[in-house]
Amino acid sequence: MKHTAVLTIITALSIANIHPIQAFAKKAPPGDVVIQWNQATLKAAKIAKQNTNEASRTVAIEAIAVYDAVNSIAHIGKPYHYFVPPTGAASAVAAAAQAAHDVLLSYFPTQKTQLDSILTVSLQGATDGPVDNGQKVGAAAAADIIALRTNDGAAPNFTYPGPAKPGIGEYRPTPSGFLPGINQQWGKIKPFLLTSGDQFRPVAPPAPGTADFKKALAEVAEIGSAKSTTRTEEQTHIAQFYKQDAELTVNEAARILAKQHGSTLEESALVFLLTDLAEADARIALFDAKYNFLFWRPVTALNADADGGVTNNYVTWLPLLTTPPHPSYPCGHCGTVAAGFEVLKKFYGDKNKIELHTTTPGEPSRVIESLTKGEQENDLSRLYGGIHYRFDIDAAQQLGVKIAAYVLANGPEATK
C-alpha cells in the first residue's frame, strides 16, 4: 500500500481552532510505551554514533513501525504502509513495543541485551489484550518498513572532500578537524513523504561581495567569534545548549508534551509518526540544498584571501563552536527543529512550558514558554556560535515550516 494523502480532518480542525489531538476519544491505554521506545531509539542511535541524518531516519522508521502496528489493531486512520488487522483481539501496547524493538534490533544487533530487556518491561505492562497476538502484529509492521527502506539510498555513504582549488564562496573542509563533508548522498535518498529532496529547495544564498552577504558576514563575525565582546553570557549559553544533535531536541519536546497532555497510545503513535517524518524529510531536503549550493562557512569566508583561498592557517577569525563538516546553506539544525516543532504545534498548540535538557556537558536545562521560543533560540544558537549566517537560518526555517505543512497534509491522520 503506497502513501495515502489525508482527507480533511487536520485542516478542518485547525480552522475550527481545535487541535487534532482532541479528535480522539480517551479509550486507548496511555501512550507511555510509545514515549519509552522513542527515548530508547534515540539512545540506541547515539550509542551507535549515528549523526543527525542517520538518527532521524532511524527514529522515523521506528515511528512508522509503531504507528502501523497500533493502527492495524486500533484503526486510528490511514496507514503509512502496513495494515493487516489481527484475527481476534490483540494488545496494541504489545504491538507497539514489538514493532519498535524489532526495528532497533535490525539496525543495532549488538544492543540486543538492552533492547530485549526494555521489551520485557513493556510487555509486562500490556494489559489491553492478548500479548502474543499484539507481538505478531508489531513484528510484521517492523518487517514491512525495514524492507521498504532497505534500498532507499541512505547507503553507501559518500563524503565530500571539497574542490582541489576552492574559489570564492565554495565550501571546503573547516577547522578544527578539516573533515570531509558528511553524507553527500543524503539529499538524494528516498524521502518518507516528500516527492523528492529538492521539492522545496530554497533560492540561492546571496553571492559573496553583495551587500546582503557583507551584512550577514559582519553580523556573524561580531557575535559569533570565539573572542566576541558583544555576545552576552545568555547568548553563549544558548549557543552551547543547542549544539546537541537537533533530533534530540525535537523528540524530547515531543515526549514532554505527550506526557503533559496525557496522550493516549493512539495519539502518541500518530504524533510521533508525523513529527519524526517531518524531521527526517527535513534532513533530506536540507542536505539536498547544502550539496546543491556548496556554500562556504563563515570561518572560511572570514579567513579567505581575495581569490577565495585560505593561506593564513585560519588565525584571523575562529567561531565559538566547532563548525560541522557540511556546507553552510541552509542551516541543518534550524530546519530540523522547525519541521518537528511546527508539527507539534498543530497537535498541542504553541504555548507550552517545557524544560529541555542538553547533552552539552555543564549546561543547565532551559525552560521555554512556547515552541516558537524554542525554534527561535535554536535558530539563533547557530549565529551566536559563529557557524551560520542569518540567511542560512531564515532559509532553513522557511523550509522546515513548508515540510511540516506538507507532512500534515499528506501523512496519515486520525479519522476518529
Main sheet summary: 2 strands, antiparallel
- Write the H/E string, N to C: HHHHHHHHHHHHEEHH
The chain-level structural class is mainly alpha
Low-confidence stretches: 1-26
Tell me the count of domains.
2
**Oligomeric category:** single chain
Helix run count: 14
Mean pLDDT across all amino acids: 93
CATH fold node name of the largest domain: Vanadium-containing Chloroperoxidase, domain 2
Number of strands: 2
Binned strand content: under 5%
Terminal-residue CA separation: 21 Å
Q: Give me the Rg, rounded.
A: 22 Å
Q: Which architecture of the largest domain would the CATH scheme give at its second level?
A: Orthogonal Bundle
Shape: elongated
Question: What portion of residues is helical?
Answer: 40-55%
Strand order of the largest sheet: 1-2
CATH class of the largest domain: Mainly Alpha
